[in-house]
Amino acid sequence: MGHLRAGGSVGALEEARRGVGRGARRGAWLGGTYNYIDQILGGILPTLRDDTPDHAQLKKAAECEKISYPKPDGKLSFDKPSSVFLSNTYHEEDIYCHLTLKDPSVAIDVNYKEYASPEQRYCPAGVYEIVGEDEGNPKLQINSQNCIHCKTCDIKDPTQNIVWIAPEGGGGPSYSKM
Ligand code: SF4
Hints:
Elements: H1 10-24, H2 28-40, H3 80-86, E1 99-101, H4 106-115, H5 119-122, E2 128-131, E3 139-142, H6 152-156, E4 162-164
Antiparallel strand pairs: 1-4, 2-3
Helix pairs in contact: 1-2
The protein binds iron/sulfur cluster.
């Protein structure tokens, strides 16, 4: 059950947050209203289930309209490199890449051609880049040293081709104020 109560455990809080996400997939108004009532009632309504994994919900690029995002203004919105800088992320340079592809050809043959390489957009650290487009030879470049270990790519990749493994030597983000 997705209960959210004062003094509840972290596990209960996490379950309630997942319930909000599942509710939202039924539409912002319907899901939001359901979760609002559930929280007022102390979490007595059944937890909404969504059995479709996140990666299977992604639509192909041809089914979507291109979104033009405004450039970051440096006041309320910021570019990815400056945000990664704040995370104090560090990885040793001579260790193995902790972001692996089960089949490297899928990155272009499927992700790029069918999904417009969504890893370029959902990765908050700009780790994934398509290079060589102008030369007609697109390739996926993985800047693993910037990875902040959110594991979104491991969960969201539509083909489940990206596998996140723990980096050697305890590298990763270091949030000094947390
Ligand atoms: S774990 Fe997060 S930050 Fe690291 S590459 Fe994947 S999406 Fe990017």
